[in-house]
Specification:
Helix content is 65%, strand content 0%. The chain has 94 residues and is mostly helical. InterPro entries: Cro/C1-type_HTH, Lambda_DNA-bd_dom_sf.
C-alpha cells in the first residue's frame, strides 16, 4: 500500500527510527522514557501517528540526541533528496 505521507515526512520518520536504533533503544524503552506506550512509538515510526514539533523534540531528547543537531542532519538529507528528484511542495501558493 502506498504511503499518503509527503516524501519529506517519510524521510523524517525514517531518520527518527534510524536514530532510535542507532542509539540501541528499544521501542518499549523509549515509550517508558516518554511516559507512553510502545504502540504509540510504533505507530509514529510506521507513519500512522503524526508528530508535532513538540513531540519530535521530546522523542529526540528522550533518545539523548540534541534536537538542533538532528534537525540540521534532517534538513541536509532533505536538500539532498530534493536535489536528486523533483519533490512536489507540501504547501502551494494560493
Amino acid at each position: 500500500m502506498a504511503s499518503t505521507h509527503h516524501v519529506d515526512y517519510r524521510l523524517l520518520i525514517e531518520m527518527l527510527r534510524e536514530t532510535r536504533e542507532g542509539e540501541d533503544v528499544a521501542q518499549t524503552e523509549l515509550a517508558q522514557t516518554l511516559g507512553t506506550t510502545q504502540t504509540f512509538v510504533s505507530k509514529v515510526e510506521r507513519g500512522e501517528r503524526r508528530l508535532d514539533p513538540v513531540e519530535l523534540t521530546e522523542f529526540l531528547e528522550a533518545l539523548g540526541v540534541q534536537p538542533e543537531a538532528w534537525l540540521k542532519k534532517y534538513l541536509a538529507s532533505r536538500r539532498e533528496l530534493h536535489r536528486k528528484q523533483e519533490v512536489r511542495r507540501k504547501v502551494s501558493a494560493l
